[in-house]
């Protein structure tokens, strides 16, 4: 298994920090891509931050009320080693399927 | 398990006499790590090869271990990556550059064909090019354009280049170490769709690393393949066995030079052959293989050599990939055509 850290992204308008309002996931949760992770408040607005990827949450940073700077770790995911890189997907090793059957009389001369 | 058995097994593992189970990714990473550790002249570089560890994790952890001067990132310019390899080789280094994807090799064709392939010849042997160019190759991972191409015929056509493609983790580990030890430039085509499948790697004994390898013996017909198509041909061989057809699978491994003797030995026995590759049909390596077989086995062949290949179109988008890459049914149909053939 590999760990992937998700740092607090730039939430727009050049804001440099955000305050955690409420966590919507806990360590140990399996999350899907785009699933809301956390409610944050900036000096402009409150918002729900979606997950950038699927994976198991193993650490969260910042208790409700604490402030996190952009670029600091927010969530650490655990993902299987056999996930694809930046491009493409890991092919499934499905059981082979066939429609064609061979029929031949072999003349073994 | 008794304590003494455990101790024996551990000792065997330490001595490297027991196979380790690795993915091709891990096997290649391990091979690079060992090459870097034993040959101080080796340098590894390419797009995202350093800090990130490669988009396929093949160079993962190598920069941290061997330093930024030996494992490093390059700009997004393949002509620069290969041009720099020429200069490094001239200066006595053993470069192992990476072109991140097959289709990214095109911008570096001038450096590969006009410099790397012929510098040794041009300099009367005074400027050898001990370069191992790693190219994640072939399709099968639902990637966009330029990420699923099969360039083996292009490279094999260039005098001065050697071309090899492993089909499993064991061969990947040993063939990469072997290629890196050669004085000539080697194009090392890694079947990217097989990166994640695990296999036993006998690190202490690579076996024969030159030429082709019979991966499944059979009596009635030889399937010739390389790279990712070897695994598919093994599946086909199992299915053919259900129908009473005993198929031999020959992994060509080296695509330049091609092991003509192994082709002659296998097809001389089975008297029937089908070549399978992902690359387009026309002027693909299948034609070369078919000719070599015809040359050695013309008198005993039961049927013309069949080719089951990709189509003469640009590599399609991921959604159409399964229609393009030879699938099980298309290979079985190729076998059927050979079995049905009658002279006259």
From TrEMBL, chain A:
Cellular component GO terms, alphabetical: cytoplasm
Organism: Arthrobacter bambusae
PANTHER family on file: DIHYDROLIPOAMIDE ACETYLTRANSFERASE COMPONENT OF PYRUVATE DEHYDROGENASE COMPLEX (PTHR43178), LIPOAMIDE ACYLTRANSFERASE COMPONENT OF BRANCHED-CHAIN ALPHA-KETO ACID DEHYDROGENASE COMPLEX, MITOCHONDRIAL (PTHR43178:SF5)
A Pfam family of this chain: Biotin_lipoyl
Domain of life per record: Bacteria
UniProt keyword list: Acyltransferase, Lipoyl, Pyruvate, Transferase
PROSITE patterns: BIOTINYL_LIPOYL, LIPOYL
Domain Lipoyl-binding: start-end pairs: 1-78
GO terms of molecular function: dihydrolipoyllysine-residue acetyltransferase activity; lipoic acid binding
Cofactor: (R)-lipoate
EC number: 2.3.1.12
UniProt protein name: Pyruvate dehydrogenase E2 component (Dihydrolipoamide acetyltransferase)
């Amino acid at each position: 298994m590999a760990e992937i850290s998700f740092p607090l992204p730039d939430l727009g308008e050049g804001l440099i920090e955000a305050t955690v309002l409420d966590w919507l996931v806990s360590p140990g949760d399996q999350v899907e891509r785009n699933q809301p992770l956390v409610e944050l408040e900036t000096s402009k607005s409150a918002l729900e931050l979606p997950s950038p990827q699927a994976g198991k949450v193993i650490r969260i940073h910042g208790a409700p009320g604490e402030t996190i700077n952009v670029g600091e770790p927010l969530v650490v995911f655990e993902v299987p080693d056999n996930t694809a890189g930046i491009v493409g997907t890991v092919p499934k090793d499905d059981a082979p399927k066939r429609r064609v059957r061979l029929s031949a009389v072999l003349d073994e001369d | 398990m008794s304590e003494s058995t455990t101790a024996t097994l551990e000792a065997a593992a330490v001595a490297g006499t027991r196979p380790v189970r690795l993915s091709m990714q891990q096997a290649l990473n391990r091979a690079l790590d060992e090459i870097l550790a034993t040959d101080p002249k080796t340098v590894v570089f390419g797009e995202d090869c350093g800090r990130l560890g490669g988009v396929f994790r093949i160079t993962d952890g190598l920069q941290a271990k061997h330093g930024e001067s030996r494992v490093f990132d390059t700009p997004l310019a393949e002509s620069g990556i290969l041009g720099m390899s020429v200069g490094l080789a001239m200066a006595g280094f053993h470069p192992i550059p990476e072109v991140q994807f097959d289709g990214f090799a095109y911008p570096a064709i001038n450096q590969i064909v006009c410099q790397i392939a012929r510098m040794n010849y041009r300099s009367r042997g005074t400027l050898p090019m001990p370069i191992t160019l790693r190219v994640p190759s072939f399709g099968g991972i639902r990637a966009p354009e330029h990420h699923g191409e099969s360039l083996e015929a292009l490279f094999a056509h260039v005098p001065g280049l050697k071309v090899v493609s492993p089909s499993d983790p064991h061969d990947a580990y040993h063939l990469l170490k072997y290629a890196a030890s050669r004085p000539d430039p080697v194009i090392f085509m890694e079947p990217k769709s097989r990166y994640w499948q695990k296999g036993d790697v006998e690190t202490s004994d690579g076996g024969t690393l030159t030429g082709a390898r019979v991966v499944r013996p059979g009596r009635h017909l030889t399937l010739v393949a390389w790279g990712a198509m070897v695994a598919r041909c093994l599946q086909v061989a199992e299915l053919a066995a259900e129908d009473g057809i005993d198929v031999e699978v020959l992994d060509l491994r080296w695509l330049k030079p091609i092991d003509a003797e192994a082709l002659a030995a296998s097809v001389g026995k089975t008297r029937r052959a089908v070549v399978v590759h992902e690359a387009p049909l026309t002027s693909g390596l299948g034609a070369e293989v078919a000719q070599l077989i015809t040359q050695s086995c013309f008198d005993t062949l039961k049927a013309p050599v069949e080719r089951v290949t990709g189509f003469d179109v640009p590599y399609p988008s991921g959604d159409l990939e399964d229609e393009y890459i030879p699938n099980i049914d298309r290979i079985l149909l190729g076998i059927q055509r050979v079995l049905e053939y009658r002279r006259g």
